[in-house]
Automatic annotation (TrEMBL):
TM region(s), chain numbering: 20-40, 52-70, 82-105, 126-152, 158-181
Lineage of the species this protein comes from: Bacteria, Pseudomonadati, Pseudomonadota, Betaproteobacteria, Burkholderiales
Protein's organism: Acidovorax facilis
Protein name according to UniProt: DUF2975 domain-containing protein
Keyword Transmembrane helix: yes
Domain of life the protein comes from: Bacteria
Keywords: Membrane, Transmembrane, Transmembrane helix
Amino acid sequence: MTQHLPPSVSSVHSPSFRRLAWGLLAASWACALVSLVLSMARWAAIGHETGWGGWMPLSVVPSQALLVGLTPPPSMETHWRWVGVALECIPAAAMLYAVLCVHRICRSFLAGAVFGPAVVHGFRGVGWGFLAMFVTSLVYQAGVTALLSWLASGQQNGLVALGVGPFEMSVLVVGLMMLLLGHVLAEGHRLQAEADAFV
């Protein structure tokens, strides 16, 4: 009697792969939105460290300013708070672009298009997004330290501090890796198109 074996299921169509894609999609948006809200809220918390600002899960003063010895001013006028929020938007824009690219990748994975053009463009977009996060982190460091030091000096003078730490090095390396992976996936897409042409 002939035994019929069940057809093999590709790992990219397995339930575990779909759960992983959904998990990455949800986690990337959740982390981005939480980070965005907290970074904006820190500028409202300046001057309220002994009150509700003390419940912030991160330092009121950005870590880049703490490294050069800057402390939060006792109070801050509203328009300077908005300047701080605008500075937060610089790296946030790069982060949200990278998350949007991750969103496109996950949606393509869930649709079964592993080597599709959307995935190739998505990984390249993530790579460029991480490189943009590296550059905007330096711009953010310069802007935040200049603003807080200028306010601390009574709007007389200030300092600009730049530094490359573990975060900057990590996003730089990951960005380059994503660009390399984008080229690999583009080759996979080309080979898949050639294979489909022979079928």
